[in-house]
């Protein structure tokens, strides 16, 4: 401990000691002084005002706040199409059968303990997660050039990856699509990166602005980081075709742009885990480096277990080892080490061929139900003669439809029909059911014919 220059240490001179004693005398407090200064201190009890009194009420989160408002609504016909959370035809949250089986296995195993995991999480989970996203025959895995760390779902994986890049990558700018998931800019800014956007969605076609995307990435400074949605783009439901992905890959590699994939919906776009991972695997196949954040929230329905992984594909095994050592320095002061339960569920399912196959069937059933909701909603609007071209409802991919409804129209639907959705007009198709489609179609019909 550093000592005050006037404190009486054995090495100080007699004059220093005298000055020290004088200082202590002049600043001496009585017990009564100490008690009264405790009460005068702003953090103590008593009559003083709160040190937080100046705080303004923060707004609710644009996505999770929709659920807060929904929960407060007493209406029996209310419908939550805000957050991207899968619901059954009965409108109930779903725990997958394979997840129940895996949990039962875990509970029955009396040898299981609750010790801390390593900083990088559950080793088997990490290996299996890399295989799931990169492919079992991935050259990068074979050559040991991938490091995977368990993180707190997709969000945590993005945050850890972002902070790692901010500390160790030469370019600090990340380009995110316009629009994108609303949490992206916040995550990356707080991780220490500077956030810019690239054109992605064209409202006039309700499709991809591919030319704008190529122009913006082409104009990005050499080496910039680029956030790419692996599949089922949120909120637009618009994905590049494989041919377009190939062009994006070529352009990015020619400019040394660093791909950072966000894979929050693997299996939810096409119903196939491998098909949905193709864009990532194209980038791995060229031997270049990249990051990928994986989430098991949606595809295994493990939302609240917070289970995900960050993989960094490197050019060589020794680099991957050093990258991992640095990831540990990012994670340790953030949350020390990740939780054990969710990762164990995933590991049980991924390691067992039968459970894995069962999972793919359940996943496909969820994806198919969402696709059937698209068809039903489209048909319902057509049968009502609702003005406008609604084909984007069946063309868009994944959990969401980006309806094109504006904030005023959304507000009307919430007020008059108790339908809750984000103000950008995004609806979670996974929250719909055959029973609720007519109600939603009535609301959309009313709002577009009413000229809100
Ligand atoms: N990336 C994208 C593109 C997402 O849409 C989401 C979740 C995540 C990452 C993070 O998910 P995780 O941390 O739970 O794994 N988006 C949701 C939920 C489904 C949310 O906003 O938190 C959404 O409604 O947009």
Tell me what you see in this structure.
The protein has 18 helices and 13 strands. By secondary structure, it is an alpha/beta fold. Helix 5 packs across helix 14, helix 14 packs across helix 15 and helix 17 crosses helix 18. 41% of the residues are buried. Bound molecules: ligand PLA. Ligand PLA binds next to helix 7. InterPro entries: Aminotransferase_I/II_large, Asp_trans, NHTrfase_class1_PyrdxlP-BS, PyrdxlP-dep_Trfase, PyrdxlP-dep_Trfase_major, PyrdxlP-dep_Trfase_small. GO terms for molecular function: L-aspartate:2-oxoglutarate aminotransferase activity. It holds the Pfam family Aminotran_1_2. It comes from Eruca vesicaria subsp. sativa (Garden rocket).
List strands and helices in order, with pairings.
Layout: H1 14-27, H2 31-40, H3 64-72, E1 79-80, H4 97-108, H5 123-134, H6 139-142, E2 146-152, H7 153-168, E3 173-178, H8 184-191, E4 194-199, E5 201-202, E6 207-208, H9 210-219, E7 225-229, H10 242-254, E8 258-263, H11 273-276, H12 278-285, E9 290-295, E10 307-313, H13 317-335, H14 341-351, H15 353-384, H16 392-395, E11 400-402, H17 407-417, E12 419-420, E13 426-428, H18 437-450
Helix pairs in contact: 4-14, 4-15, 5-14, 7-8, 7-13, 9-10, 10-12, 14-15, 15-18, 17-18
The structure holds ligand PLA.
Average per-residue pLDDT, rounded, comes to: 92
Give me the secondary-structure category. Answer: alpha/beta
- Sheet-strand content, in percent, reads 5-15%
> Helical stretch count?
18
| Fraction of residues in H or I helices | 40-55%
Strand order of the largest sheet: 2-10-9-8-7-3-4
Shape: globular
Contiguous uncertain segments of 5+ residues? 1-11
Sketch the major β-sheet.
7 strands, mixed
> What does the radius of gyration come to?
27 Å
């Amino acid at each position: 401990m550093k000592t005050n220059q006037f404190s009486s240490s054995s090495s100080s001179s007699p004059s220093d000691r005298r000055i020290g004693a004088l200082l202590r005398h002049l600043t001496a407090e009585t017990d009564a002084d100490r008690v009264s200064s405790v009460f005068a201190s702003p953090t103590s009890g008593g009559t003083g005002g709160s040190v937080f009194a100046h705080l303004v009420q923060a707004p609710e989160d644009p996505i999770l706040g929709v659920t807060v408002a929904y929960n407060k609504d007493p209406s029996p016909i209310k419908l939550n199409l805000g957050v991207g959370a899968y619901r059954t035809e009965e409108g109930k949250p779903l725990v997958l059968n394979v997840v129940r089986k895996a949990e039962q296995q875990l509970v029955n195993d009396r040898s299981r303990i609750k010790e801390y995991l390593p900083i990088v999480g559950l080793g088997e989970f990490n290996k299996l997660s890399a295989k799931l996203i990169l492919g079992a025959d991935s050259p990068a895995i074979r050559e040991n050039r991938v490091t995977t760390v368990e993180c707190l779902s997709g969000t945590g994986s993005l945050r850890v990856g972002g902070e790692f890049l901010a500390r160790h990558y030469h370019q600090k700018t990340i380009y995110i699509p316009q629009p994108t998931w609303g949490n992206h800019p916040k995550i990356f800014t707080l991780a220490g990166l500077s956030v810019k956007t690239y054109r992605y969605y064209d409202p006039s076609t309700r499709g991809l602005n591919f030319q704008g995307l190529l122009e913006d990435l082409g104009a990005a400074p050499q080496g910039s980081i680029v956030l790419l949605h692996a599949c089922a783009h949120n909120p637009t439901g618009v994905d590049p075709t494989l041919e377009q992905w190939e062009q994006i890959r070529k352009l990015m590699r020619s400019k040394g742009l660093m791909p950072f994939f966000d894979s929050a919906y693997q299996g939810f776009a096409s119903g196939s885990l491998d098909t949905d991972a193709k864009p990532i695997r194209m980038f791995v196949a060229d031997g270049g480096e990249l990051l990928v954040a994986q989430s098991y929230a949606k595809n295994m329905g493990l939302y609240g277990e917070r289970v995900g992984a960050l993989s960094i594909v490197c050019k060589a095994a020794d680099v991957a080892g050093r990258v991992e050592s640095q990831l540990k320095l990012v994670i340790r002061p953030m949350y020390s080490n990740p939780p054990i339960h969710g990762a164990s569920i995933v590991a049980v399912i991924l390691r067992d061929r039968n459970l894995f196959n069962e999972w793919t069937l359940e996943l496909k059933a969820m994806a198919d139900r969402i696709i059937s909701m698209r068809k039903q909603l489209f048909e319902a609007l057509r049968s009502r003669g609702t003005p406008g071209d609604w084909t984007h409802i069946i063309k868009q991919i994944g959990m969401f439809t980006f309806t094109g409804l504006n904030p005023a129209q959304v507000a009307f639907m919430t007020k008059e029909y108790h339908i809750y959705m984000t103000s950008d007009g995004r609806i979670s198709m996974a929250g719909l059911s055959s029973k609720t489609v007519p109600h939603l179609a009535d609301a959309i019909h009313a709002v577009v014919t009413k000229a809100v």
